[in-house]
Amino acid sequence: MGVEIEIEASDGSGNFMGYLAESGEGRPGVVVIQEIFGVNAGVRAIADDLASKGFNALAPDLFWRQEPGIQLTDQTEEEWARAFELFNGFDGAKGIEDIAATIAVLRAAGSAKVGAVGYCLGGMLAYLTSANTDIDASVGYYGVAIADQLDAASGISTPLMLHIATEDSFVDEAAQKAMHAGLDGNDLVTLHDYPGREHAFARVGGEHYDQRDATVANERTLEFFNQHLA
Fold first, then answer.
1. pTM (two decimals)
2. Catalytic residue among 61, 168, 210, 213
3. Active site annotation includes 199
């Protein structure tokens, strides 16, 4: 089990919560980037699992500028509605600033190398983190709106892996083709397609969870981090 810590925003606007699951002093760090449901039990479980595998994992509360401490599930219509409100009100540029501040906390604590892994909204932010911060490696699961931000790819200078659900109801076929066209030629980027899978196929307990492909994706992510962060 991890603990909640405070992270200082780089713009001086205050502090925000981060859920920290530690593996040990000097271990590589991983920023765990939330979905639209906040730093909920699922995000915390991912951080705990990464800690059990040898990483110091830190999940920042990226909705704090709207409402601190959001922890929603995907189980009710009311929670979905609130999650989309928060998503629509989210300032992506400030989110990247807060991720950069989170990276700095892990580095200051002794992690020589730091990676990032994100899901849905966090998948998009993992892509933008790769292009806009000093992260050492990034992984995005079913990131939304990446196809609309392919101009940012010129900033990618460290390895990036993206997991793409081919039947993603939030990322249509045209967007997936644009992602491949814009990123396949970049030697730093690896795209994995999961035929027949829907958005959030790796969200344990979710409607579209697929254990087989979630396991494949998670094993690829772990191998990727062991290769680039060790």
1. 0.98
2. 168
3. yes
